[in-house]
Specification:
Strand order of the largest sheet of chain A: 2-1-3-5-4
Largest sheet of chain B: 5 strands, antiparallel
Largest sheet of chain A: 5 strands, mixed
Oligomer: heterodimer
Number of strands of chain B: 16
CATH topology of chain A: Rossmann fold
Order of helices and strands of chain A: EHEEEHEHH
Number of strands of chain A: 5
Strand order of the largest sheet of chain B: 3-2-1-15-16
CATH architecture of the largest domain in chain B: Orthogonal Bundle
Largest interface: A-B, 49 and 54 residues
Distance between the termini of chain B: 37 Å
Number of domains of chain A: 1
Strand content of chain B: 15-25%
CATH superfamily of the largest domain in chain B: Cytochrome-c3 Hydrogenase, chain B
CATH topology of the largest domain in chain B: Cytochrome-c3 Hydrogenase, chain B
CATH superfamily of chain A: HybD-like
């Protein structure tokens, strides 16, 4: 996958979600920081736009415009460990129970406001276990991050849709 | 004792819990106690995960606090950032801000008001209003709105995005921004950034005005419902300028009664403890503040859009003030109190914020480079107050000689509205649920009342898989009779 296409938009958008002061919710921001530095070092930064946020919101749908792939990185609340990697699709049946949106709904908002299908999208969900305010990430979360990171570095060098789809099918 | 707060014989009643309340940030639940005929005897909004924020702050260096407190809330981090930094301006010994620094902070704050109100109205509230309180709950969300009203949904997304961009340009980042520092700002606004925001602001004003008109039209379709839903009388409070205009960033405290008569005015917020008292109740972690001179039973109040635009004498921008006048005309010279009026007032504030952003972007001071105030003697104690999107937000700190915070008291907007939200759910329970067979649609009426306040109960965590919604019907022996789940 080449760097910025004709429309000047970088082909891959990555959303890393979480609050660094909420225990294992820091998983997203920690991977964001690591990925940012690593992409620079690898000369891959021109292929990615990275966004770090506390929560997914409706305006993130706009950041999908013109992309070839999208990746959402988030902690999971006692989801399968150490991590899962899956392809997701727009979903209108997911109820919104909070100010924040699940990734599938961000895709659905994109579909509705842009009138077209969103780019292929994937979720890297890293298992977290405790989310207390003021708590650092736990040892288990740090171990999960390490394992997720090895996987992430492999699929981002370079980012290829076929490789991501195969990885999602296997995971 | 408030009506419907505590049942005489709870052991004989069955209990319904709405846990968690949906489209509300954090973890709150509502419990209703009913007898065999579904007559309601007790309704409570419980905040079950809220305390601990102050402890999170104590022991930290004061200069770090304006950044740290942003992690309390994923929805309005800028509000905590600005309230904290206003207190720390004084702790650090700084005098009045430079004109550029104050205007940049105001610009950031109006961006915050716009983005927060936009996400609340379009994402959280409009599904109920546009699709119906008892429409299919699997479609009663922003995706359902987008399906039926794509243009409105798109405008909501772009208004929110615009507000976030204002924050990014003034705070440096969309989240964890460090724009405001004790004494001023650490980032000037470039001409290119100013121009980028200026090119779209007229569109934002037009869309926000369109949203006000949409709510006005909805009201005209069924005024009885909108006027009466969750209608209860209360005092109101907000920050005002010396001339009585609402001021979101800085002002003095004003409180008015349910008829709009002044209770107190031009109170220096540093002395808030002389006019406000915080009580606790055993069934909620959230405090119950009230106006001291009126006591707990009569002194509780509303803050936030409906409270403050009616506590103030006027809004300082013409389009928003005209809309405020139109809304208040419904009260025939007296304040309006219907709970759904919060949405109307909230959208008027979006118009006001957009007009203020336009004016600030056109002000030559906004591109200034003089960002830091003169420094004087340190203080050990200070209070910072702003009008956050959901209402008046107090940050009170004491700092020792080692620069560490030794005392922190936060009265967040949702805490100020605690009793009012409890009254709202009791009023709605009386109006729509009492004596009826309970359905999901009727329970959503309770949630709509809470959602109108846009409470932020305990924020900033949102891991995947943490968004269930369950309504359980439990009898007096604790046996579950029925359960409904969403999400």
């Amino acid at each position: 996958m080449s760097a910025a296409s004709g429309n000047g938009v970088r082909p891959v958008v990555v959303f890393a979600i979480g609050n660094p002061s909420r225990g294992d919710d820091a998983i997203g921001p920690l991977i964001y920081a690591r990925l940012t530095a690593w992409l620079d070092a690898q000369g891959l930064a021109e292929s990615f736009d990275l966004y770090e946020d506390f929560q997914l919101q409706i305006e993130h749908a706009i950041d999908l415009k013109g992309r070839q792939m999208a990746l959402f990185i988030d902690a999971g609340d006692n989801t399968p460990g150490p991590f899962t990697f899956s392809r997701i699709a727009p979903h209108e049946g997911i109820a919104h129970t909070s100010h924040a949106l699940p990734p599938e709904s961000v895709l659905q908002v994109y579909r509705q406001i842009e009138g077209e299908e969103p780019p292929p999208a994937f979720v890297l969900c890293v298992r977290g276990e405790q989310f207390g305010l003021g708590k650092p990430p736990g040892a288990a979360a740090e171990s999960h991050i390490e394992q997720a990171w090895a996987f992430l570095a492999e699929i981002c060098h370079p980012p290829e849709l076929a490789v991501w789809m195969k990885a999602a099918a296997v995971a | 004792m408030f009506a419907l707060e505590t049942a005489a014989h709870p052991e004989t009643l069955r209990r319904i819990a709405i846990d968690p309340v949906t489209r509300v940030e954090g973890h709150g639940k509502v419990t209703l106690l009913l007898d065999q005929d579904n007559k309601i005897h007790q309704v409570r909004l419980h905040i079950v995960e809220f305390r601990g924020f102050e402890a999170f702050i104590e022991g930290r260096p004061y200069w770090e606090v304006p950044v740290t407190v942003q992690r309390l809330c994923g929805i309005c981090p800028v509000s905590h950032h600005l309230a904290a930094v206003k207190a720390m301006d004084l702790i650090a010994g700084y005098g009045p801000l430079t004109p550029t620094a104050e205007k940049l902070r105001r610009l950031m704050h109006y961006g915050q008001i716009m983005q927060s109100h936009a996400v609340h109205f379009f994402h959280l509230a409009s599904p109920d209003i546009l699709l119906g309180f008892d429409s299919d709950f699997t479609r009663r969300n922003i995706v359902g709105v987008a399906l039926d009203h794509p243009e409105i949904a798109k405008q909501g997304v772009l208004l929110r995005k615009y507000g976030q961009e204002v924050i990014r340009h003034t705070a440096g980042k969309r989240v964890h921004g460090t724009g405001a520092v004790p004494g001023g700002m650490n980032k000037a606004l470039s001409r290119a950034e100013r121009d980028e925001m200026a090119k779209d602001i007229d569109q934002m004003i037009a869309w926000s005005l369109g949203a006000v008109h949409m709510v006005k039209q909805l009201h005209e379709t069924n005024p009885a419902f909108y006027n009466v839903f969750g209608d209860f009388r209360s005092n109101m409070m907000g920050l005002v300028r010396p001339d009585g205009a609402l001021d979101f960033y800085h002002g003095a405290l004003r409180a008015v009664d349910a008829d709009g008569q002044t209770i107190f005015d031009q109170v220096d917020y540093a002395t808030y403890q002389e006019v406000l008292q915080e009580d606790i109740k055993p069934w909620s972690y959230m405090k119950f503040p009230h106006i001291k001179s009126l006591g707990a039973e009569n002194g509780w109040y509303k803050v936030g859009p409906l409270g403050r635009i009616q506590a103030a004498s006027y809004l300082s921008t013409p389009l928003a003030e005209a809309e405020r006048q139109a809304m208040m005309a419904l009260g025939g010279g007296k304040p309006v109190h219907g709970t759904l009026m919060y949405h109307w007032a909230r959208l008027i504030e979006v118009v006001h914020a957009a007009e203020m952003i336009r004016d600030l972007l056109n002000d030559p001071d906004i591109l200034g480079l003089d960002l830091m105030a003169e420094k004087g003697p340190r203080r050990h104690e200070a209070v910072g107050v702003i009008e956050a999107p959901r209402g008046t937000l107090f940050h009170h700190y004491r700092v020792d000689d080692d620069d560490l915070v030794t005392y922190c008291n936060l009265i967040v907007s949702t805490t100020n509205n605690n009793q009012a939200m409890n009254e709202a759910v009791r009023t709605v329970a009386r109006q729509y649920l009492d004596g009826k067979e309970i359905t999901e649609g009727l329970l959503n009426h309770i949630e709509c009342a809470i959602r109108a306040y846009d409470p932020c109960l305990s924020c900033a965590t949102h891991a995947l898989g943490k968004m269930p919604m369950t309504v359980e019907l439990i009898d007096a022996d604790g046996q579950m009779l029925h359960s409904l789940s969403r999400g």
